[in-house]
């Protein structure tokens, strides 16, 4: 097993359960279902037959509607209506959210269980649409059916979650995450803050299956980096389930290919599982999980043969149970809330101070809370006209001016400092934020963007330096463990420098959050 981040105290029970299950297995006692009693209420076994029944319905819907369930096609709306009827009958409050893309109306289906804390929402989603080439039974009937059956298990088992449970089936994922983007982009800031975790399940029954878990802590060290603070805990929870049944897992990167993308872009912790798409199973993977090395995890990915015959029942069964386990664990108060200690989306003025020590040297482009205007130079975007959320961010010179360099950072250093923040004295404290640093080829390594948390000592969360090359503005996420500052009164300090008068440098920061877990 690759190195993991240190396990928080809340995870000790999960680890103990996993060790107990593996010990029993090694002794020859191999129960059909693991005894997972780590939470106040244990998660139920999700009947594979029920999940398969939903897949059969999706196949029948596609057969009756031109062979697919794609955005803007009748098969998609019929799939929405099938799910809605099931959820309405079970007592969920359902909402059909419409949007338009490519001249066609798309739909998201949202279902909320009317119990639990509405200010602390565990959200679980899967895209419901297929490509036009086929019925999309693995991609993504499998994820859609699995989370439907988990949702139906809530009233069936009498589960009373401490947190609010919300399930979502997204439209037009295959056309660029259109449904989930529409949902997140239209969600008020206060509502975003209520979503403590987002779980995504896109393809969980691949015929040549792998067992991949989204790499929330970036322990793999590749690709997009870690998810927002709290993502590591989701990863560890899912891994604890698979460990308990003796199934090894491997990480999969937050590469933006599925509906977690809009959530992590606004700082919402995310996680989930994935059994593989068009990627080729290696001999190492085959030795871990069986199956055929040298072939795709799903040879029918985005093809007409992605039918009800294109499902690995074992993988589907294990993943459905893993989804239930994760939802049950995260929805109970005994598990980590990832609660927000302090946050700022900059939609209102909260008391950030420019040049707080009176030592800044920048002559233009000083930090401000502003509604940024888009700027570019020779095709290189130097300032984004869009923020991560809402209309405002912290930006070096929000206006566009007559040219890209009119309001860029010039003449030295500009600093902006948050109001005081009192940190709790317990738990793991994490600072997360979105940022970009943009410059042209006339920049140098002396130019920088830096984010620090300053109290009795200083934690540097970001130190991004320039270079003599074009770097277009693009939002990225950053995070840092600031637990060393527990119990202190601190300030967040953001500074940027343009070390040369000829260089063009722009920077921005948005959606800053401190969480406790």
Number of E-type strands = 22
Q: What multimeric state do the chains show?
A: single chain
Strand content: 25-35%
Mean pLDDT, as a whole number?
A: 88
Number of helices: 10
Shape: globular
Rg result: 24 Å
Give unreliable regions as ranges.
1-39
Q: Largest sheet at a glance?
A: 8 strands, mixed
Strand order of the largest sheet: 1-2-4-3-5-8-6-7
Classify the secondary structure makeup into a structural class: alpha+beta
Helix amount = 10-25%
Q: How far is the N terminus from the C terminus?
A: 24 Å
Structure keywords:
alpha+beta, eight-stranded mixed beta sheet, 517 residues, single chain, six-stranded antiparallel beta sheet, globular
Structure, explained:
This protein has 517 residues and is α+β, with helices and mostly antiparallel strands. It has ten helices and 22 strands. The chain has an eight-stranded mixed sheet, with helices on both faces. Strands 9, 11, 14, 17, 20 and 22 form a six-stranded antiparallel sheet that branches. Strands 10, 15, 16, 18, 19 and 21 form a six-stranded antiparallel sheet that branches. Strand 12 (375-377) and strand 13 form a beta hairpin. The radius of gyration is 24 Å and the shape is globular.
